[in-house]
Amino acid sequence: MSFVFLIFLPLLAALFVPLLFKKVGKIHTGWFVLIVPVVLFSYYVSLLPTTIHGGNLVSEFQWIPSLDIAFIAYIDGLSLLFTLLITGIGALVVLYSIFYLDKHREQLHNFYVYLLMFMTAMLGIVQSDHLITLYLFWELTSISSFLLIGYWYTRDRSRFGALKSMMITVFGGLMMLGGFVLLSIMGGTYSIRELIPQATELVSHDFFLWALVLVLFGAFTKSAQFPFYIWLPDAMEAPTPVSAYLHSATMVKAGLYLVARLTPIFAISGTWMWLVTGVGLFTMFWGSFFALKQKDLKGILAFSTVSQLGLIMSLLGTSAAGYHIDNIAETTFKYAGFAAIFHLINHAVFKGSLFMIAGIVDHETGTRDIRKLGGLMSLMPISFTVAVIGAFSMAGLPPFGGFLSKEMFLTAMLSLTEFDLFSMDVWGILFPVVAWLGSIFTFIYSFYFVFHTFAGEHKPDQLPKPAHEAPIGMLVSPVFLALLVVVIFFIPNLIGDWLVKPAVLAMQPFLYSSPEDIKVHVEAWHGFKLEFFMTLGIFAIGFLMFWTLRKWQKSYDLFPDAISLNALYDNMMFLSDTGANRFSRIYMTGFIRSYLVYMFSFVVFIVLGTLFLTDAFAINFTNLAPIGFYEVVILIALVGSTFTILFSKSRLTGIIALGAVGYSVALFFVIFRAPDLALTQLVIETISVALFLLAFYHLPQISRKEERMRFRFGNALVAIGVGTTMTLVALSSLSQKAMPSISEFYKETVYKEAGGGNIVNVILVDYRGFDTLFEIAVLGIAGIGIITMIKLRLTKKEDQHENK
Amino acid sequence: MRTNDVMLQTATKVVTFIILMFAVHIFFAGHYTPGGGFVGGLLTTSAIVLLMLSFDIATVKKILPINYVTMTAIGLLLALATAAGAIIFDVPFFTHAFGYFDLPLFGKTSLHSAMLFDAGVYLVVVGVTMTIIQTIGEDE
Q1: How near does any CA of chain A get to the CA of B75, in Å?
Q2: For residue range B35-90, what is the model confidence (pLDDT) as tens digits?
Q3: Between A297-319 and A270-291, two packed helices, what is the crossing angle to 10 degrees?
Q4: Which domain holds residue B117?
Q5: ipTM, 2 dp
Q6: Rounded to two decimals, what is the model's pTM?
Q7: How many domains is chain B partitioned into structurally?
Q8: Contact status, residue A347 vs residue A400, Cβ threshold 8 Å
Q9: pLDDT by residue (tens digit) across A390-424?
Q10: Do B76 and A757 lie within an 8 Å CB cutoff?
């Protein structure tokens, strides 16, 4: 089966959503949408038996064969894992959204179209083998997430958050495109599968480091790594189902996917390992530290996502160490890749449920401000249970899935100290320390999230709505996810064999030949090792600090907002927006003569410069036609009327003289046997003179005194420059006969190939039909422009409003 | 302030038709002798402009109740459709076809798909120039 087309199934379904919303208003549109991820999920599950043993599937169809661009869906352990996350969590999120979004008040047709568009984009990213189509889908996620974040577009914060996320992720995406192009130049192919075997040759290439860094820009911006994470907290303005889906389970993981997918190509370089591990670990600490500053439930979760993404990123980086150590199976490094993928699954599950709980709390109490919440435990018992399970998994407590992957994370970080490449023995100790500190803060904010919301004192007077438990339908998805969290703890090795190991194989194909070679067995109890005592330390210190949270939380206010990364972003936006506006006001004077001066000086500069640089300047008078009586007469008329324009006192004289210039030129065309041009020129002159006369009454009186001497001198200089340039170009083009004249070609082919007799017209409609097509399009645009300028002109009042 | 230009108006009534006929001739002749959609369009426009100058815009609007913006759009679509039509016959975009046919009345005539494209150009040129002149002329 050509499953590549399944990528586009959500997009296809999206076409029907507006119709369903308008026509079948009684049933919530989400029910129809739900079918899509469910069908996809069940189909992709059926592919599992292939990947469990390390197999893969390829399906492709051509898109632009002449540029070697094709949609190639490549399914192996890694892409199937992500595909299942996208469709599985997608189904749960859609189910949740059915109860979260009101069908009467919300613009559901927009919402689900964006969501389905996003689903296609995500499936495309994780299944594409072709780098260019991968990039295409990558940017499609940026665009669809922009639309989703800005879904409540009447709110300022939504629009701000949407723009911010798009600016940052699209910036990263463009960088990544550069990296992809470099990769394809080095390897001679856009296919990831074909690039991987070349890794050992690629690493010595000059472009390799550039490609590596550029690709990482893409991955880091998308996965909200330091310092690009700032868009993620603002993206929380999106409706909660979107946050649960995009900003925890799927889109932000695209960066992780990219790093995992390209690990076989780049991991051979030490820089990759340094960068990915270092940035990831720092992000983990930074995110967890600032999560405690947040007052908004979704804000806490956003920072926690940043931190967790950093954690997975650092593990992916550590897994690259496998390329620098012989006999990986003997060392503790073998855990890193496994832990990364395992934690990725865990995170998608528990963070999805936590976001849904945050949404429920918001939905049922009307606020997400953690200072107003409290004591909801008895009012919302099911939500509380789910929240506890999710948060404890996040904090790394048994018996929840997160505990297992957190232990492996510590093991992997500890093993970095034993790594002696790049003199890590000096700095290596930093890695486990930062990881440990980050874990402590993770523990605290997990508790902060649950207990400051559900425990403590209930403050009904501060809540906009009286709190009560959510309807059953809204609880189904989070409860299911919470169950999964527990299930994962008890059957980690089943998950490991089915999902994690095939994915690790795709990530480290040099190390293993089949998933069975990966000898990792997950155990909840792994003896009195150092990581066990580290965990105990996390629990003890974390609990102590959580207990005293209220005393020291205020110290966060000491961090000034003015020198934060957000302020940097705001300033940059201000500069590019207002700054550019101010800058353009300097040169946009509103006088057409200023613009003409810019244009003409530019033309003179470029054309004259090129003429001299390429030594194209030559004058040869030998082959010129003799000058006859008529030419002289017309020339005198031409020059005479030109000077009349220069010195005319009234506009009317000027216009008529201008017409005379045009007619003289037309006469030249007649003499030199170009009837076509002469005809066109004559008609154009007639019409433009008429146009001038139409506009005549609106033009201000001509005034010759408004310009000072200095400007006149400048204008004269530009005018002389343009004149000289044109003369030189004309003379040179006549004198330089490097190639035979093209007119012979037209004379020969115009009848044979185009069935016409008039060369000019055949060129216009046939040989250069594209030119003409776009020219008339430009004409049309000019017409529309004039209508908008004159008919739809803003009144004074509106104008002020516009500039505010 | 409108003077009574009897001479101009009387002449215009005759001349306009001559120009229009000439425009049609020029347009159709375009593929073999000087002319084509662009010049034909401009000539048509100049005929209408002449009408506008000797009478006034409101009168001309009454005589020729044409929405020039729509005309532009139709022209663009016609040009684009001619170019895209090639795809149906599985040849590259913008491939023109031509042939000779024996038509009643006309005798042996060459028909060329470029003519359709040129007609698009003609419509756009008339549409846009008239849009511009009309909007500027009507502006207070």
Answers
A1: 9
A2: 788 889 999 998 998 888 888 888 888 888 989 999 999 999 999 988 888 778 87
A3: 160
A4: 5-138
A5: 0.90
A6: 0.76
A7: 1
A8: no
A9: 999 998 888 888 888 888 888 888 877 776 555 55
A10: no
